[in-house]
Amino acid sequence: MSIQPEQPTGITYAEAGVDVEAGDRAVELMKASIKATHGPQVLGGVGGFAGLYDASALLSYKRPLLATSTDGVGTKVAIAQAMDKHDTIGFDLVGMVVDDIVVVGAEPLVMTDYIATGKVVPERIAAIVSGIAAACQEAGTALVGGETAEHPGLLGVDEYDVAGAATGVVEADALLGPERVREGDVVIAMASSGLHSNGYSLVRRVINHAGWALDREVSELGRTLGEELLEPTKVYAGDCLDLMRFLNTTPSAGVAPLHGFSHITGGGFAANLARVLPTGLAATVDRGTWELPPIFRLVSQLGNVPQADLERTLNVGVGMVAIVEASQADAAIERLAARGTAAWVAGNVTSRTEEIMNDPETVQGAKGVDGGAVRLVGSYAG
Fold this sequence. Notes:
The chain has helices at about 20-35, 75-85, 90-100, 120-140, 200-210, 225-230, 235-250, 270-275, 295-305, 305-310, 330-340, 355-360; strands at about 40-45, 50-55, 65-70, 105-115, 140-150, 160-170, 185-190, 215-220, 225, 260-265, 280-285, 320-325, 345-350, 365, 370-375. By secondary structure, the chain is α+β, with helices and mostly antiparallel strands. The protein has two domains: about 15-170, CATH 3.30.1330.10; about 180-375, Phosphoribosyl-aminoimidazole Synthetase, Chain A, domain 2. The strands form four sheets. A seven-stranded mixed β-sheet has the order 10-12-7-13-11-15-14, sandwiched between helices. Strands 3-6-4-5 form a four-stranded mixed β-sheet, covered by helices on one side. A two-stranded antiparallel ribbon has the order 1-2. The radius of gyration is 23 Å and the shape is globular.
């Protein structure tokens, strides 16, 4: 009689590094924060194969245009992981996505997120999503779906990355863009909350080169370096939509005075502003109208970063720009101030002259857009 050798235990999904039960626990922990973003337009609950949104309101549009955007937060996630603080990175994600949508005048309606991680830690995933949900509430956007994927062997157990996508709508005749911008318009800058979510590869390289730890107290910042680097991105969607409705709903002489927005992200101030100007016009922006915030001065000094490189990598204190008729500049600034957003006239739009185009600091177009020209002049205040 032969004895069969004992069969080895089969390999399970858990042994491969994927914990399905942990994923389910994470969903339970995040349900409340997600539901807080839902209005009556959202159908169904959390966990469906697809998020459902009642778009009946679009029936009142003459010609509704859908606007969509997708983004991540880059290497800022490395700071969140190093500090083991995950409830603010969601603001960075939402800001990077929905504020690209409002640039064309669209209202961001729905958003979905994607989180990839080496190991699902339910509390950590729930903290990330709580930040996404809180930022969606601030933007007036419903978080209707998402995915958490466990990638053992590809990411470390404490590593993750996040991405998101959103869809919005704008009436065709309210669409903002370069064709609305006119000579004589003014450039209104809106203050950033800090570095936001761009240029962290440069920032991290600088602080590593300087040998500074994240828990280092920095007097110029009034807190630790890590706390400053993790400051959430300011979400401008609500401010921009409010300003657009305030200025453009009942325009004088039938001409809408708010002509455009520019979200200042990767590529810096000049390059992003140039994308929303027509080819025949140029904007001159005076650095002297604002003071360079301490974190930008610190990065520049620690890394001996050339000003040109700083300005084409970081937002240098301005996170969003509005382009409006000069006669409405004061009203726009007052409206933004009432909502808690500091703003000021930083420059003006003129025809594109030889002097401007011959200036080596002038930037024309960016990211495949053959737009207008922008040059920054003068020195920062302070």
